[in-house]
Design a protein that fits this description.
The chain has 137 residues and is an all-alpha fold. Helices cover 72% and strands 0% of the residues.
């Protein structure tokens, strides 16, 4: 390499939109509402891809919460569900609550990683969750 050679880094705003980067921190604060709103109003492919990925994660997290919490409380409240179904529901609910807590703890890490990936130009798909947005839409 000669002393006169220069390397040109990517021009941030020419290659990707700020909203495509910001959707991940916004989704950390607002969940499915912020990511969903950005997904619905965006016309930029980069922003839509990042919003779809964040929305998939938060839809999965919300779905897990909507299943885990009622399942646990149905099993934990004696008299609502006859035994041994109540005990089984309580155990399944407890396992789902633990998985939910792990997923909630991981939300910050995956959101941060997705933000960094977006800064460098890629729409990173969050791990484990299926592409619910494309499946449902």
């Amino acid at each position: 390499m000669t002393a006169n050679s220069t390397t040109h880094g990517p021009q941030l705003l020419e290659e990707r939109s700020i909203s495509g980067i910001a959707v991940h921190p916004i989704a950390l604060l607002t969940g499915i509402f912020g990511a969903g709103l950005i997904y619905l109003v965006s016309r930029d492919d980069f922003t839509r891809a990042n919003a779809r990925n964040a929305l998939n994660w938060h839809l999965g997290l919300t779905t897990l919460m909507l299943v885990a919490v009622p399942t646990f409380f149905l099993g934990a409240n004696e008299g609502l569900v006859p035994e041994p179904l109540g005990t089984t529901l309580g155990l399944i609910g407890a396992v789902l609550i633990v998985i939910l807590m792990i997923a909630m703890a991981a939300t910050f890490a995956v959101g941060l990683l997705a933000t960094v990936k977006a800064i460098f130009g890629s729409a990173w798909e969050y791990p484990v969750v299926p592409d619910l947005v494309n499946h449902l839409g």
